[in-house]
Amino acid sequence: MAREKTVVKGIVLRAVDTKESDKILTVLTPGGKLPVIAKGARGRKSRVTACTQLLAYSELTLSESRGWQYLSEGSPIQLFEGTRQDIALLSLASYFTELTEAAALENVESGEILSLLLNALYALGELKKDPALVKAVFELKLMSLIGFEPLADACACCGNPEPEDPVLDIREGVICCGRCGKGERGLEPSLPPMASTTGPAGRWPARMPLSPGALAALRRALYGEAKRLYSFSLAGPDLKKLGDAGEAYVHAMLERGFKTLDFYKGLQMQEADG
Fold this sequence. Notes:
The protein is an alpha+beta fold. The chain has helices at 81-84, 87-103, 111-125, 131-148, 212-223, 236-254, 259-273; strands at 5-18, 22-29, 32-38, 57-65, 68-78, 167-169, 174-176, 207-209. It has a five-stranded mixed barrel with strand order 1-2-3-5-4. A three-stranded antiparallel sheet has the order 7-6-8, with helices on one face.
């Protein structure tokens, strides 16, 4: 009896070599995260090799057997060559896929997450947007899409729509004025060390300082039109504050570190030292 086939569009978040020439893929589709077995994908004559690469966005024909999805055919839609040709961009894109894999669930509607990832990769490789800006916006918007959207429309303590000396409370997921919500001594406890596999553990204060410019960018990332997420610029201290806040917020919400992020930051340090 012939296996029933389905056709989906999805992007490869992870590819693991297995047996002699097979791969086990983690694919993000509009219907959720999906494990897929690609038989013979590493063989010289395989017709699906391009579709089984990390970052490959393709139309995939799948057949099910014993609870597993097997890749029968594939047609690449976008391989993001502009991102692949730069080691720093590729490492950042790899962080995006690892973060997405941690955030997405199987059999849970993920169309918005898929669109977010595709737009971020396009912004990096094709539009040549500032990687630091793309990273921060991606992190904040992804947390929003999986139910961890910080309340950023006003100070959560006093209600001021334009908080004075704004901070992001990454434990509570709210924006506050710098003076609001502090204890008598104004102490800002640190979060536990971030799990790290390639470098020393990092620490983030529980209240990440923002600036008016960084706050405006954070609001744009959370509330802006999806197709125009990266249609603005930010630089200098404002971008640094936004980037630190986004990374700290991911750490607080998911309570884990990422090897790909460690590698990307290591490349940044080498470039700065060189």
